[in-house]
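Q: How would the C-alpha cells look for this protein?
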Amino acid sequence: MPETSTTSGPIVRGRPARTDLGHGPAASAAPMPRDRRRVSVVPWGVLGAIGLIAAIEWHLGRNWLDLSDPVSVSWRYADDAASTESAACDVLFLGDSLVKHGLIPSVVERESGIKSVNLAAARAPALMTYFALRRALESGARPRAIVINTKPAVLIAGVDYNAGYWPAALSARECLELGRITGKATFGVEMLVARLFPSLRSRLEVRSQLMAALNGTADPISEINRVLWRNWSANGGANVASLNSPYRGELSPEIRDRLHPDRWYVDRSNTKGVELLLSLAREQGIRVFWLLPPISPGLQQWRERSGAEASYESFVRAYVSRYPSTLTVLDARRVVIEPSSFIDATHLAGRGAIALSRAVAAAMQDELVAKSPGQGDGWRILKTPAGDVAHRDDVLLEDLDRSKEIVRRR
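A: Here is the predicted structure in C-alpha cell form.
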C-alpha cells in the first residue's frame, strides 16, 4: 500500500516535506532568510577592557610616590640618581641603609674637596649595588672610587627577600638579567611582569589608600615618602636623620629576629653580586673602599660574643686578598660609640653621620691623593674626628625633622 501521512504535502524520505516555505520545487529549495545586521570584526569589548587596564596601570605608575613603600622609593631614588647625579662625581657611595644614613656628600666635600653622591638604598643587596654602579657608568659617570658596604643581615637574605623592590629600580631587560644571574628565570619573569604592571607591585599600598579613603582619613605613606624624597634630594642622596636623637642604646626583643646578630652565612646571590661588583670596578680602574660602618655598641658586642662578627670579618678579608690593587677596607666600627649618635640599633643619627663622613673623607683624601693605588695592607682603621664632631656649617644640614616641617607647610 502507498505510504500515507497525516499531514498534507509530499513525503520526502519517509518524512513530511516542509510546507512553510511555499509550494512547488522552487519554493522548497529557497534559502533561509538572513539576519541583515552586520557582525563587527573588531572586538570592541576586548579593546575597551585593555584600554581600561592600561589607563589604570598608567595612573598607578604616574602616582608612584603615593603608592610605594619607603624601601621601594629608596631603590627608585638610587636608580634615578645613578642616571642623573653621578656623572660629575669623583666618588659614589653605594650599599644599603647603613651607608645611606651614614655618609653625607656635602660633609665629605667640605672636608676633602671630593665631590660625591649617595646612591645607597634601604635593604639593598650586593646585586642591587652592582646594578646601581653599572647604571651610573652607562650614564656617563667616571668615578675615581666607590664606597660600598654589605650589612650582615642583608647578606643572609636571598634574592626573593627583595621581591617587592627590584621592579622599582631595574629595567625590563635587567629584570630578566637578574633571573639569569641568580639561576631563577621564573623569578626574573615575575619581576618583569611587576615592572610592567604597577598594580601588582603596589597592591598593598592601593589597598591602604582605599581603606583610608573609606575611613575618611589620609594614608600617612604619602607624607612619609615625600618627606624622605625631600630629605634625600637636599642631602645628595643621604638620609640625614634627626641631629638630636633620643636613642640611648636599648636593644628591643625583635633585634634577634630582624638582624640575626648571632647567625652568619651568605646567600649565593649576594656572593655573586659582590663578585660582579668588584670585577666591574677592576675592569673600569675604579678604587673600591669597603666600609665597615659603626652600629650601636650593644649590638656590636652581641655580634662579637656570638662569633658572627669574626666570621663576617673573615669574609671581607678574603676579598681583600683577591683584589689587592682594587679593594681597601675602611674599618669604622669604632668611629662612633656614643648611643646618642644613633637613631636605633644600626642606623646613625645626624651627628653620628657627620662624624663618620668626616672620618671617611680624611681616609679617602689620603688614599686617593697622598698615596698611590694599591699601597698599604688593604685594611685601614678609621679614627674618630678630633675636636667637635659638628662643624658650624652642619647646623645648615636639613635633617628629617626639618624636611617634615617643609613638606607639611607646603
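The domain at 70-159+219-409 is CATH 3.40.50.1110 (Rossmann fold).

The longest strand covers residues 287-292.

Upvote if useful.
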